[in-house]
Recover the amino acids of this structure.
């Protein structure tokens, strides 16, 4: 397992508030990692930095075998380099069909002229069928994404993420608002994906994290407070204070 | 082509309606038919088709791309100016050559050139060709400028605006500023485009002296209809495929498209520039029918009207733009042309020339409130019911 993403000594300040404070984080490939932490711990800001939405004041973000810095790259370039992101609120293109959503996400040349002349071939269609099968939406390929249920939208978004074929998936609260069986399906999906790719799951829900059965990083006030197995970190005195104390 | 028809069922319908429409008008026209329709009405209809084209361009950029440009009539007018320059020079040189040939000695080409310049620029106190008229005697060059000038303005403006991630209302204000600045620039006499006089006599197309305006108007109607048909098929092709899905995705959630790895700015720039080029071509067909163009055509209000047409017609559907532009601009012509009967309320008389804008505003509010998908949305409703 080699290091895929390495974040070191990163800090970012918003109007005097230190959202991320000397944060260091590394993940290999393949690996599953859960990031937990109370509200305001900097989980979303961390994802914003990795995906290029927020520029840090200091620190390094290095990617891949060649350790390319992600800091000078645009969101789109980072996405093309192989980092996919799933937002907390399901964001799919609501007035387009499930098929079209997946087709837009499918890993292909993204330049305007290539897309203009793009024609889906049998392989592309088969790949979409396969993805739809994986996320349980085979019967809904021609359904507008806007009328899917909340859980289905979450899956569609995960499906779009997979269609991008990223090496690293950043997944923000994938189980939010899901029912029991839906959660189990999501857990299975993520664990399957993590066999070949790096997956970072940001989550509040301890039960869900326990089911993921992976290494956990606890964020607090913009830096990593503890790291290790779930049992290890939950027995950590500082973590208990942060979560339960005060 | 067959795919296109299948994907966008409105394409064959619109093309059929266009053919039936121009054929009917031709049969009824003065120039080529029974004469039931006046030449000025044929011209108005031809111009309306050109407005439908620029509305299509607006729908591509706003209805599909979510970029509310309030400056697209600037591109339209620039297209008109570019063709207008050639029309004026070619026409004037014919006239001047004819009058100078009465003299004892045939004029030298310098004399001829100077006389043409005085004839064109005399009204603004000029006697030589400004630099921007360098290619005006050359029809292919000036036709290329019809595409290149609006296209490069849109490219530069769009590059600056989109690169800085200017969106929403700020972008709309910037585009208004662009069209206003351009209009004020053209109003100046020393800009070189005849200031507030604009370019006139554009209905006299060189090389067609033997042909009556009544017949010429029918030709231009056909040309406009052909251009609209091509623009419609082109827009349907762009928006019907994956490119259209990406563009609609940018409209609905720009950040999401960015995180999928698409260079959002390039897409916006592409649509903005392509639509500006289409607007320029529409303008180049419009002004020979209108006969005159002046800087008022670039006033900010013109582009706002364009947005209103598309909103009333229903944005995000190509036929909506066409219906909106046709319906509203024809109604506007009828009301402001003094044909609509005044309504006498005793104390007060409603004169439509003044009150039309109130009616239009009211209509706009009504559509926004009760039919947010516009007139085109009503068609969707009926066609959905019919197919059930």
């Amino acid at each position: 397992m080699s290091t895929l993403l390495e974040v070191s000594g990163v800090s970012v300040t918003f109007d005097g508030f230190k959202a991320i404070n000397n944060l260091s984080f590394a993940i290999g490939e393949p690996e599953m990692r859960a990031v937990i932490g109370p509200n305001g711990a900097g989980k979303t800001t961390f994802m914003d930095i990795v995906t290029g939405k927020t520029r840090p004041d200091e620190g390094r973000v290095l990617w891949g075998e060649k350790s390319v810095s992600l800091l000078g790259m645009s969101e789109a370039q980072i996405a093309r380099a192989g980092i996919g992101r799933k937002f907390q609120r399901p964001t799919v293109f609501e007035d387009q069909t499930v098929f079209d959503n997946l087709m837009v996400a499918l890993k292909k040349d993204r330049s305007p002229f290539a897309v203009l002349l793009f024609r889906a071939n049998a392989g592309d269609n088969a790949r979409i069928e396969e993805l739809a099968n994986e996320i349980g939406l085979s019967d809904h390929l021609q359904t507008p994404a806007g009328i899917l249920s909340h859980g289905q939208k979450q899956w569609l978004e995960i499906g779009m993420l997979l269609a991008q074929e990223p090496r690293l998936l950043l997944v923000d609260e994938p189980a939010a608002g899901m029912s029991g069986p839906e959660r189990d399906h999501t857990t299975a999906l993520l664990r399957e994906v993590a066999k070949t790719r790096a997956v970072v799951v940001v989550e509040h829900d301890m039960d869900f994290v326990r089911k993921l059965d992976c290494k956990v990083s606890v964020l607090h006030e913009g830096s990593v407070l503890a790291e290790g197995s779930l049992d290890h970190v939950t027995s950590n005195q500082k973590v208990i204070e942060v979560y339960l104390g005060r | 082509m067959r795919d296109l028809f299948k994907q966008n069922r409105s394409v064959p319908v619109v093309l059929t309606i266009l053919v039936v429409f121009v054929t009917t008008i031709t049969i009824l026209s003065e120039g080529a038919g029974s004469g039931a329709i006046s030449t000025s009405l044929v011209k108005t209809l031809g111009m309306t088709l050109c407005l439908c084209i620029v509305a299509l361009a607006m729908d591509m950029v706003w209805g599909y791309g979510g970029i509310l440009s309030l400056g697209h009539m600037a591109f339209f007018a620039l297209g008109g100016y570019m063709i207008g320059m050639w029309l004026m020079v070619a026409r004037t040189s014919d006239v001047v050559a004819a009058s100078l040939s009465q003299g004892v000695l045939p004029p030298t080409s310098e004399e001829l050139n100077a006389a043409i310049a005085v004839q064109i620029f005399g009204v603004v106190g000029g006697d030589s060709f400004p630099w921007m008229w360098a290619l005006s005697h050359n029809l292919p060059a000036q036709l290329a400028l019809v595409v290149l000038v609006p296209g490069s303005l849109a490219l530069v403006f769009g590059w600056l605006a989109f690169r800085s991630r200017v969106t929403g209302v700020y972008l709309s204000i910037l585009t208004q500023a662009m069209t206003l600045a351009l209009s004020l620039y053209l109003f100046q006499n020393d800009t070189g485009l005849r200031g507030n006089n604009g370019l006139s006599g554009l209905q006299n197309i060189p090389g067609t002296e033997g042909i009556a305006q009544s017949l010429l108007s029918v030709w231009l109607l056909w040309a406009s209809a052909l251009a609209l048909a091509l623009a419609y098929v082109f827009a349907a092709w762009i928006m019907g495929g994956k490119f259209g899905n990406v563009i609609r995705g940018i409209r609905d959630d720009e950040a999401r498209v960015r995180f999928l790895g698409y260079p959002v700015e390039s897409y916006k720039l592409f649509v903005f520039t392509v639509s500006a080029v289409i607007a320029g071509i529409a303008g180049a067909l419009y002004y020979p029918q209108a006969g005159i163009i002046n800087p008022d055509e670039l006033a900010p209000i013109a582009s706002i009207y364009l947005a209103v047409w598309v909103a009333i017609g229903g944005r995000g559907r190509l036929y909506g733009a066409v219906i909106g532009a046709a319906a509203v601009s024809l109604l506007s012509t009828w009301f402001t042309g003094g044909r609509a009967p005044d309504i006498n309320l005793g104390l007060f008389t409603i004169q439509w020339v003044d009150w039309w804008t109130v009616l239009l505003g009211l209509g706009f509010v009504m559509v926004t409130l009760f039919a947010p998908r516009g007139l085109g949305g009503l068609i969707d409703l009926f066609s959905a019911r019919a197919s059930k």
Remarks:
- Chain A has a mean pLDDT of 89.
- The longest strand of chain A covers residues 2-14.
- Chain A is about 35% helix and 25% strand.
